[in-house]
Amino acid sequence: MSEVLQDPALVAPPPKVVRFARVIRVLRRRPSAIAGGAILVFFILIALLAKWIEPYSIADQVGKVFGHPSLAHPLGLDDSGYDMLSLLIEGTKVSLIVGFAATCVSMIIGGGIGLSAGYFGGATDTVLMRITDYFLVIPDIPLMIVLAALFGSSLFNIILVIGVILWTGTARVIRAQVKTVRERVYVKRVRSLGATHSRLILQHILPQVAPLLIANTVLTVAVAIFDETALSFLGLGDPSSVTWGQLISHAFERSAISAGAWWALVPPGLCVAALTIGCYLLGQAMEDALNPRLKVAHLAPRGFRLRPLVGRGEESV
Amino acid sequence: MRRSDYLLKRTGFALITIFVAITLNFFLFRVLPGSAITNIAHVPHSSRQLQVALTREFGLDKPKWEQYLIYLKELGKGNLGISWANQQPVTSEIRTDLANTIPMLTLGTVLSILLGVGSGVIAAWRRGRTGDYGPTGLALLFYSFPTQWLGLMLVVLFASVLPISGMSDPFLVDPTMLQKLTDILKHMILPSATVALTLYGSYALIVRSSMLETLGEDYVLTARAKGLSGWAIVRKHALRNAMLPMVTLIALSLGTVVGGFILVEVVFSWPGIGQAAYQAVVQRDYPMLQGVFLVLTISVVVFNLLADLVYFKLDPRVTE
């Protein structure tokens, strides 16, 4: 049985490698994708190196309260005389951890629900999608507030709360994609050869959906970090950890604004914005690369060249 | 499917969603182990009498399903319980708060839709040129600013010119009606502007991509082949069809709107329902929090239903 399944003549070549390569090829030609990727890599590097590049301790007063930016403290000092640059670096690390971990939770839930709904179809699909629809309508932030208020606000809880709420969009996107993949000829062939559900899903469908899942991950990380700042601002963050959201919240609560200490407020907000833009540019470019509709020729800014519509046929991306 | 069936189905969906939200509300606050109201009777070092009194007040001695039925019945009467913070009925508190929120939020949302549609259409029309990069870049920037941060930045920038806190000036002496109104409007500028600026970014991006999809349709190519100018195509052919996804996406974004204005109200101490949610969290005033969550969810569901109906009106083909 397994030899038959591996016979390339019978199982049409699963184009997973081609697909990833193609996405990367498209991305390399798009300056916005490169810029987005660069921003993301920059922040990830800072997060990884945080321990070594923080110039001061983040738990000690190292200068005057609300001290101005200076050569020794490029971003000034906060309300307790802590160095802002060190706090910002530490915040990058913790915010990214929250963002990626919450996204992982949401990908597992959303990806799982999307895959099973799309793959099994029928009653499973109806029930799962109904549930998704209900959750999609219930507003995110109020539900997060309720959950965080009820279950306490450790960093772990925050990650769970955000992850449990962000999965709906992913589930829908993945389901739609799985539905088209499922009808491809090679999947039908593999099925007729007697492959089990788990084999089909893991070996033949998941690789086809993976690029979309990754694009979705990139977009969701930004939303998760965004939501963490909102929760922190409402006093529902983990008070013992330093995140960008906590820094913004401290600037508000501890009168940095009336003290004129703009340096305590501006940098964390700009960091959130930069990371969000980076994720948006990269994620959107990936989604565009997977969605052939926007390649229609007469939309091209220069001239009126008619190109064949790439990949609108059955074996399209 | 017939048109009336479609309407019925959408209304049914909205009603079920509201029911799910109500049940979720009950479940979160009452049933989950260690959840808020169940814990109430376990005040540490409390006397036996206090425990009994609390258990009776919240009906904790009854079985869960009976508690649920009582909850539904009270809800049907419009009774959301008594706020723990100030002993007022939650329903009347929320009514006052909503009356304060709605004008501010409406002004902000209308502004953001106008800005967003304008900027998105221009960007799509000038796709890939300066006319695209400018508005799209700006929209992306505002889309990515955290709401509370943008509000605080406006406070920093405009604190000397505009009021930054509350809804009215308590020191006005014998104000006339007109003075009162201008005072409130002045207080409304910054919160509404924050709502508008944070929302406009995502609307502009939605409108742009929706317009681009439409501009890729074959009939747009036909219109172009007939020699129509770009702007005429956008205005007469593309915009009308692009309206459909816009309506849906804007309705779906309402959940985000709700999240955003809570933050805005906290920044500007606007005495609305977002501020009430914040206070309820800070004071652990669970009946109030429960009420606010329910009201916010129901309003989002209702607006989604309205969007469905508008969609239905705009596109007679929608019957699946």
Q: How does this structure look, described?
A:
The complex is a heterodimer of chains A (about 325) and B (about 325). Chain A has 12 helices and no strands. With about 325 residues, chain A is mostly helical. Chain A is elongated, with a radius of gyration of 23 Å. Chain A has helices at about 1-5, 15-30, 30-55, 85-120, 120-135, 140-150, 155-165, 165-180, 185-190, 195-235, 245-255, 265-290. Chains A and B meet through helix 5, helix 6, helix 10, helix 11 and helix 12 of A and helix 1, helix 6, helix 7, helix 8 and helix 9 of B.
List the main descriptive attributes of the protein structure presented here.
heterodimer, A: 317 residues, mainly alpha, 67% helix, elongated, B: 320 residues
Mind sketching the topology for me?
The complex is a heterodimer of chains A (317) and B (320).
Chain A (H helix, E strand, L loop, with lengths): L1 H5 L9 H13 L2 H23 L30 H37 L1 H16 L2 H12 L3 H11 L1 H16 L2 H8 L4 H37 L10 H10 L12 H25 L27
Helix pairs in contact in A: 2-12, 3-4, 3-12, 4-5, 4-7, 4-8, 4-10, 4-11, 5-8, 6-7, 7-10, 8-10, 10-11, 10-12, 11-12
Chain B lengths: L2 H29 L4 H5 L7 H10 L6 H13 L13 H36 L4 H15 L2 H12 L18 H39 L2 H8 L4 H23 L1 H14 L5 H10 L3 H29 L6
